[in-house]
Structures are given as structure tokens and as C-alpha cells.
Design brief:
Elements (H helix, E strand, L loop, with lengths): L2 E6 L8 H14 L3 E10 L1 H12 L7 E5 L6 E9 H11 L3 H16 L7 H16 L2
Parallel strand pairs: 1-2, 2-4
Antiparallel strand pairs: 3-4
């Protein structure tokens, strides 16, 4: 399966892993892309903080970092790092279910790899719409 889940410094497993893979693949294919190799690496805050400092020179905690490894425009290859601690904190802060927030963060990373940003207010609005539409398809 080209969509794989890895775990670093945490005890965690993706709920409904096969359904999640099918869902992600469908979202990507609906955008006219093929899934090459997509790795989700779930970790703790410190692990992701180190990635953030080492590769992006950002001394901040974050919930997700995406690295687009694609060599062609039509095939998606990527590494997506997600801090489970941040996702839990986000869910608590936003008063939403952890699993729902996890799916939102995962698909957020996928949309980044597909070329959507979230730096401006308008981009963030479009990203949120894409996330919500994707969550409805799970």
C-alpha cells in the first residue's frame, strides 16, 4: 500500500487504518493525481519540534509538517509528520473529537501536498473548505 503509517516516540495507532488509506487515496485521485509513496509519521511534540528546527529553522511547536518529495506533477510522493500531542491539544481547545481532529490534520497535510496553502486569510478559508468537504467523504 503506497500510504503508510509510522510511529516515532509514541504509542499510537491510526484508527481505521485501511478506511483512512482508501479515503486519502480517493481525495488525491479526485484531484487527478496518483499516489506514489505517502508516509505519515506520527510522533510527539519534541520529535516534530526537532524536525521543525532542523529542516525549517523554526523554533516552534506545530501539529504538522509536510515534505513534498514528488518528482513529477501527476504523482504524489510525500512525508507528513504529525504531532499526536498537538492534535490532542487542538481537539481539546476546539472542543472536537480527537479522531475528527486527527483526520482534519491528516487531510490538511494532503491538501498542502496538492498545492493548497494557508498563509493568507483567503488561503486559510479555502483550506478549511477543502478539509470540511474531505471530512464529509470519510
Amino acid at each position: 500500500m503506497p500510504i503508510r503509517f509510522f510511529y516515532e516516540n509514541i504509542t499510537f495507532e491510526v484508527p481505521q487504518p485501511q478506511k483512512t488509506r482508501v479515503w486519502i487515496k480517493k481525495i488525491i485521485q479526485n484531484q487527478q493525481y496518483k499516489v506514489g509513496e505517502m508516509n505519515f509519521i506520527f510522533c510527539d511534540d519534541e520529535y516534530l519540534h526537532q524536525i521543525n528546527m532542523q529542516y525549517l529553522q523554526h523554533d516552534t511547536y506545530t501539529d504538522i509538517i509536510t515534505f513534498d518529495q514528488s518528482e513529477t506533477e501527476e504523482k504524489i510522493d510525500s512525508d507528513i509528520y504529525i504531532s499526536i500531542e498537538r492534535v490532542k491539544e487542538n481537539a481539546k481547545h476546539q472542543q472536537v473529537d480527537f479522531e475528527n481532529e486527527l483526520k482534519r490534520v491528516m487531510i490538511h497535510g494532503v491538501w498542502h501536498i496538492l498545492g493548497f496553502g494557508d498563509k493568507t486569510e483567503e488561503e486559510a478559508k479555502i483550506m478549511r473548505t477543502k478539509e470540511n468537504e474531505s471530512l464529509e467523504q470519510f
